[in-house]
Prior knowledge:
18% strand, 12 helices, 10 strands, Rossmann fold, alpha/beta
Amino acid sequence: MPTVSYETISHWRRYLELYPPELSGAPGVAEEWWHWRGLDVHLDRLEAPDARFVAVLVHGAGGDGRMLAPFAKLIGGTRAEVVAPDLPGYGLTRTDEPLDYGMWAECVADLVEVERQRSGRPIVLFGASMGGMVAYDVAATAGAAGLIVTCLLDPRDPVVRRVAARTPLLGTAAPAMLRRLAFADRVQLPIRWVVNMAAMSNDPRLNDLVASDPAGGGNSVSLRFLRTFMTSQPAVEPEQFTACPVLLTHPGADRWTPVDVSRPFFERIAAPKELVVLANAGHLPVEQPGLGQFERAVGRFIDAL
């Protein structure tokens, strides 16, 4: 197993200095490693052996499991044991191979099955940012008791591509351009060159911190990963999605992916669903009163499952 640990890395601790009191302080998680397809996948776990559910937190392209670990205190406790993986290529889960976007859903789906077998408890998926669609795909194919997301970004939608990319022109041209560059799949680009990392939050200090984090927003991604995301389609069309109830907790002051970008896909979902707009919260929802609204909405949702 790798010897690296978040105990020996300091960058993530600076997030806690900018997070509100509800998320600050040590996240209280235990570190684990899970061997998957030749990779050592890092997991943060907030144990709750008597909780009814296991919640799997799925980060996006500007984060990692440790960035989301503080949210485990809002989601977990008596309701759920929480597991936050570093998906391949991010956090402490490193690989030299060019990633395929589909690997993220496959990784989470296999982790869901491992957690089911480990404890026999039903799974709740929580996806943040790009992780929302990853969690959606996993719920559709591997099953879940519930799905919580902060946004739902279908890259087939030209509006989604324009707002997700660093510039609207880049988002418009990306699919065709990346197909022509398939021969250069192994080329790595800083993720902040291609997505609007400056809108990760409404706090410029937090944006700078994310953009300089080598485990998250300061990371590099392969052209293969970008191409396979930009040309991807959901595992199940929303009109056929009946796997589980869905809670969309969309930040109301999201300067990166406004709620109207997620709404068209969300409204097509056939399963029972609820939309809660988090007042004053940015893409990474750390502001009040949105953060409190998030905690209460998630609590109600899980209690009702």
